[in-house]
Predict the structure of Flagellar assembly protein FliH.
Amino acid sequence: MTGFVPKEKLTAYQRWELAAFDEVERMVQPSAAAPPPSEEASPAAVTEAPLVLPTAADIERMHAEAHEQGYAVGYEEGLARAREISTRLDVLMTGLKDSMSALEQDVADNLLATAVEIARQVVHKSLSIRPEFLIPVVREAITALHPHPGHPLLFVHPDDAELIRTHLGEQLSHNNWRIIEDSSLTQGGCRVEHGASEVDATVETRWRRTIESIGITQEWLADMPTGR
């Protein structure tokens, strides 16, 4: 049995160990002046709400709602964009149609002017190759005047005078017609005068009447660009 060891005979280690133990014991023991812990601060007194996790059905529902909302927004944006593009296309097509119409009109006018010019050249060429085409023109011109006293005048190009005398000399002499050679006239045409009456059967006048009969005027031809 271990006997009592007086304090003064304790070793340094034993004294420190005991003292330390005493200090720990004093620290662990509650102080008489310290108030008891509050029930509100006790962790056991705090009630926490339980954590509820979404079910698979909830997740699927939320996914479907998000998809529908996203689809609706995307649809409206796409529809607005489609309307904008459609409006721009309508403006573009209208402008294109107007441009095509103007271009078609220009092409048509140029083709018509070219055709008229070709026809005019053909007429002049035909009259130079077949001068006898002038005979029916002269006959129509001299019969268009009302007969009255005097000497009616027939103006023709010098190159056509002999042709007229050959084919119509007897008829003209019988009615007192005088043939006047006029180099200012285009070959293939004529002009007759009898008193105050006049018949213009020149090539230029006959040509003007021809093109006017199909709705073309000399002013319109003059406004067309050159180099046709």
